[in-house]
From TrEMBL:
CDD domains: lepA_C. One of its GO terms (cellular component) is mitochondrion. This is Podospora anserina S mat+ genomic DNA chromosome 3, supercontig 3. Residues 103-203 form the GTP-binding protein LepA C-terminal domain. Residues 14-99 form the Elongation factor EFG domain. One of its GO terms (biological process) is positive regulation of translation. It comes from the Eukaryota. InterPro entries: EF-4, EFG_III/V, EFG_V-like, LepA_C_sf, LepA_CTD, LepA_IV. Belongs to the TRAFAC class translation factor GTPase superfamily. Classic translation factor GTPase family. LepA subfamily. The keyword Nucleotide-binding applies.
Length: 205
């Protein structure tokens, strides 16, 4: 089920947008490109050879694969020699789920995504591994109500006044003001405080 404008909607059938893609590439990179397209849930339409060394692949692909930098991956797999043309191919019934990142069992709405069910465990593990270095508590990746991956880090607590003498009032005030300014850059998720840069780094490809 999904929430929309405060209402919980029970799904019957979900659809995702598709594109008809044409990939032109040198034959020597054919294996790499076909392997890449298999990873994005493609439906192969045809393979055409021309000019002895060139190949045209035609696929039906999820539009989401374009958003996920398919063209950049094609360039990397063919050393820049591939071209990609595509057009709208309508909608196709699909098995989609909402993937959440949970920190101390609290969903982080800023990073939630709707993904295909076949990608849930792989993406969940990637999420918690990538986010682990920026968060100091416990986190989970969950699809619906099912936890698919988790990472745990020891809690960290900083006492800025621990090493100061009680009479050093000016220094104590400066440290407290500095800590207060730092907290403005943080976002609280449950009882975990996360620096906003952690979200920026997580969302960076």
């Amino acid at each position: 089920s999904f929430r929309w404008r405060g209402y919980r909607l029970k799904r019957t059938t979900l659809y995702e947008p598709m594109v008809a893609a044409k990939i032109t590439l040198p034959e020597e990179y054919l294996g790499r490109v076909m392997e890449l397209c298999e990873s994005v849930r493609r439906v192969q339409k045809s393979v055409e050879f021309f000019y002895a060394t060139q190949v045209i692949l035609k696929y039906e692909l999820p539009t989401a694969s374009l958003v996920d930098d398919l063209f950049g991956k094609l360039k990397g797999a063919t050393k820049g020699y591939a071209t990609l043309d595509y057009e709208d191919a309508g909608w196709r019934e699909s098995s989609l789920v909402k993937l959440n990142l949970l920190v101390n069992k609290i969903p982080v709405d800023a990073v939630a995504r709707v993904v295909h069910s076949s990608q849930v465990e792989r993406l969940g593990r990637q999420w918690v591994t990538k986010f682990k270095e920026h968060v100091d508590r416990q986190m989970f990746a969950a699809a619906g109500k099912r936890v698919v991956a988790r990472e745990t880090l020891k809690p960290f607590r900083k006492e800025v006044l621990a090493k100061l003498h009680a009479s050093d009032i000016g220094r104590r005030r400066k440290l407290l003001d500095k800590q207060k300014a730092g907290r403005k850059r943080l976002r609280a998720v449950g009882n975990v405080v996360i620096d906003l840069s952690a979200f920026q780094k997580f969302l960076t490809k």
